[in-house]
User: What shape does this take?
Amino acid sequence: MTTATASSSVGAGQGTASRASQSREQWASVRTYISAAVILIWCLAPAYWMVVTAFRQVGFTYDTTPWPTHVTLDNFLTAFDTSFGNRFGQALLNSIIIGVTVTVISLIIGVFAAYALARLNFRFKYLVLGFILGASMFPGVALITPLFQLFTNIGWMGTYQALIIPNISFVLPLTVYTLTSFFREMPWELEESARVDGCTQGQAFRKVIMPLAAPAIFTTAILAFISSWNEFLIASQLSNEATQPVTVAIASFAGAQPNQIPYTAIMAAGTIVTIPLVILVLVFQRKIVAGLTAGAVK
Amino acid sequence: MKTPRFLFPAATAGILALTLTACGGGGGGGTTGGGSDAEANLDGRGPITYVQGKDNNNVVRPLIEKWNAEHPDEKVTFKEQTDQADQQHDDLVQRFQAKSTDYDVVSVDVVWTAEFAAKGWLQPLKDKMAIDTNGMLEAPVESASYKGTLYAAPKDSDGGILYYRKDLVPEPPKTWDEMMEMCSIAKENNIGCYAGQFKQYEGLTVNASEAINSAGGSVLDDEGKPSLNTPEAEEGLNNLVEAFANGNIPAEAITYQEEESRRAFQEGKLLFHRNWPYIYSLISTEGSSQVKDKFGMAPLPGKDGPGASSLGGHSAAISVYSKNKATALDFIKFLTSEEQQKFFANQASLAPVLSSLYEDQELVSKLPYLTVLQESIANAVPRPVTPFYPAVTQAIQENSYAALKGEKSAKQALEDMQKSIESAGAGSQ
Amino acid sequence: MATELGPTPVKPASGAPAVHHGPKGVGEDNRILSQGKWASWLLAPTIIALGVVIVYPIISAIVMSFQKDAGLDPATGLFTAGGPAGIQNYVNWLGQQCAAPGGGTVACPPGTLGGQFWSATGTTFLFTVITVALETVLGFWMAMIMARSFKGRGLVRAAVLVPWAIPTAVTAQLWLFMFDFNGIINKVFSASILWTGSEWPAKWAVIIADTWKTTPFMALLILAGLQMIPAEVYEASKVDGASAWQRFRLITLPLVKPALMVAILFRTLDALRMFDLPYILTGGANNTTTLSILVINQIRQGFNSAAALSTITFLIIFLVAFIFVRFLGANVVEQSGATGKGKK
Assistant: This one.
């Protein structure tokens, strides 16, 4: 099952492959492609429907023809139309500002914490771990009212920090735990030997450990970014028109009449919102591969 | 070894709790005094903020521009909430609980008035703050009042209407029994007979209350106590239960909200359909509509004559925490004036609260259903006016849903509703 | 790199804890002390961030949960503060007791939120167990495929993230739209299922939507874990003639376990707090009310009682997490336990 074709070619180079195993590998690669196709269908079919709907005329929202019909770009124009007070463009920017800030800050302080938890020896380690995990256990819906009052009292309502700081706290437990678990698996003796070679502890960490940890760090970054990108509950109460993220902007889309859910405009917005993330992942994926190569060189 | 360590957060939390209580303020308890806030700032003038849900037809902005041009020192800022009633409600509650001065004039759904008034969040519109309700329809005024005091100015109204296929049924049914008899016509044409909104959500409260009220029952008595243990209430709810059981209401109607049911009707799959007036323009113009010229509108059918619609709509209220209540009062008078009411009706098809406008020839020719709607609103019963509305609607929804699905009898469902509503009010001394 | 291979399970390639390299005796104590100082500096930002945004609300909720909800004063028609409640709010939830008209309490009649506590707990656990299990299996499978090198791997990796990249607010509407009685799902499968209108279809609708949405989270974390396994480990094991299943069970699984456990742990915590999907898809009807939905419904009816429910939910989740960490080995610092133990 785990036959990686890359490593099998190494095996073939060593001349251990018989004809039987070759055909077995071909079969394995066919299976890989079948699996990949199933994954693609499962993940993309609903998204496909989102895109098809995004391009449908409002009057034909519920058309169930499986391919695009009544095609129009109106929904995308509607999403960005600012005349009725929609601020989707601004909201997109806000989401990026909030998402990037949350990701960077939570990664930095998460790396600190994870390093301490994985590498240092100190009292109350379990207390700290329990505390961090405990922060992921309270129903999010019940956090809103206290936070609302806290931020009203200190005059932070509608500010970026009122959206960024809660988001950092929401992603921190996951960030710290993921990074800690990966840091535990690092070959730290490499850091020691780098120090023997004259590096300081900081240099050793940056130059030897960070490249090795790259897959973990980029994975964590994606997790953190998307979770902040998705956040709705807190933002819906604590943001204002100038700072609201896309999730809130989408929720404020409205049909031509009350009670109408503007599915086509929501799907158009969903499509717009998803594209930058997919690009982001494609870019990050290069980094992940780069991190791997750096690790292999050691 | 690990166990005690792992449990430490709880202990620490306990200690921290003691130290933080003082500054925690225990906010959000929904407790009120209200009295002194209601006396303050009655003469305040200056800029204010007006808050309402999504302005679907873009009628509020032009109106505010007009106001601002005339009142340069008392400008109004428009804060638009989302389209979701629940989110609007929670947004207002958060502000009120924090005694926020951000919002001055708020648009409240008819069903929230009693709750907000009892929490002491709305400025009573009496004495110095009184407004003139002469000429307004009775039901909207009633739903904007609590314990005999007006807390909000009715702004727009809404009532249920029976849509029917005039190509198949020449004369609309006057009573529920008549309608059920006409279901044979639906069968002949191989379409469903009747549907309203029966998914478990606020719309089900509307439909179930209409059924109960139309049969002569009521959800709450004049004292605000539940009154569901009556044969009339049982007959009303049972009408729906039976129609589901014998297929006069198609089974999929259990998933219908306003839009799903509208689609079924406009795709020609229903003979009769209960909905709000807003669908009129959609059915008559939308590209996918199969019944553009084939439908008529009538009051809801009742027991012996027209039924009792549930009332929808919004009122404008002043927050007790507002700093500029004199300006706020002027602004709600402006919002509810005849001129603006007509503008709302013309531009956004919002049903006016002034009875005179229902006779207005210009409006009637534009909105041909106005006469029917006036009758509907005249016969309308406000949804239960109670400060415990969230609990009451929960009780109605959950139990009538179970009854419609055949999981319990109408009688049993009403008994459970009765008990649930009694319990909701029982926490009070 | 440690590569003791063969039929015995491979030990994760962690070096011995750093302390062991240091001098023994007095020196070690000093080092622990200075490490403790270091650790407190490194952990401070995390603790502060969590303290402000999460611990403060939790504590204020706990304080409120010992207060009665505001009651109506019949004379004025206004709500008045309820006063101290002791543990009554907790007793009411756990025993499904509601206020009785004449004073005291009665068993909550159907149609009250109080009567839904245990069924909501059951529903929450049902959703959690099924979705986390499905997501783990599917996520593992996806990660294994993505870890292979084949043409179009980049495409698959990007595609896998799509469900997760679409904001939940859109996802929920998308599934509601697709699960419509006249929607695309019934059409494609020529079915006429009332997805949101009857109990099990409604539950499955929530489960399918949640699994679709969050499997990428699992897949991504597991993939990162897979990528930390050096290729040499596999090659050596192949030379040893281990079968695919043996390699999976003896190499992949133990090496991925830390990442896998973190992924399962956090998915479980999230699933136990599931809110948006069932709320938008079914509104909590047909026995799909989760604890979080119950909390928000209760917030609208009475905040102090909702605070008690939040605290109960917190304790339930705490218990689950505790069992997880204690008995299922999801402890991310387990291996370093030897040095951490015995300090208190």
User: Anything to note?
Assistant: The interface with chain B takes residues 57, 59-60, 62-63, 83-85, 124, 126-127, 130-131, 134, 144-146, 148-149, 152-153, 157, 236-237, 241, 248, 251-261 of chain A (CB under 8 Å). Residues 1-15, 291-298 of chain A have pLDDT under 50 and may be disordered. Residues 19-54 of chain A form the longest helix (36 residues).
